[in-house]
Amino acid sequence: MDKHIELSYCSFEAFKVLAKNYLLLETHHLYARIQELLGETKMTPAEVAEHLMPKTLPGDDKVCLEGLIAGLEKAKEDARLKAEEEEAKEKASSPEENAKEKGKENGLCANGNAEMSKEKE
């Protein structure tokens, strides 16, 4: 059985805890930019932690934080492109298809009635 678990996105406060745990940092001059991007972008704590894990020499905190900033900027751009793509797709679909989709959302059946046609016994 598939179960989907919704996880919250990383806040700046959660980021500071992760940065302290992974990089032993209380503060850094890049924190302001990271706070701004976390407010604009949806990224899970696991994704943030992945960027904070040192991949090069230990103690290279700036590289880890810059990697996180790059990841946040990429996620922001991807979200923007996806939104534009969905908007273009919605505009391109015919009014008839839009009406059908609206009907499905409102609980209408294919014949346009709110109730399904009943078979005669």
TrEMBL record:
Q: Which residues cross the membrane?
A: none
Compositionally biased region (Basic and acidic residues): 80-105
Q: Where is the AAA+ ATPase At3g28540-like C-terminal domain?
A: 10-82
UniProt cross-references to InterPro entries, sorted A to Z: At3g28540-like_C, Mitochondrial_chaperone_BCS1
Q: Where is this region: Disordered?
A: 80-121
What Pfam family does this protein match (any one)?
Answer: AAA_lid_At3g28540
Name-wise, this protein is: AAA+ ATPase At3g28540-like C-terminal domain-containing protein
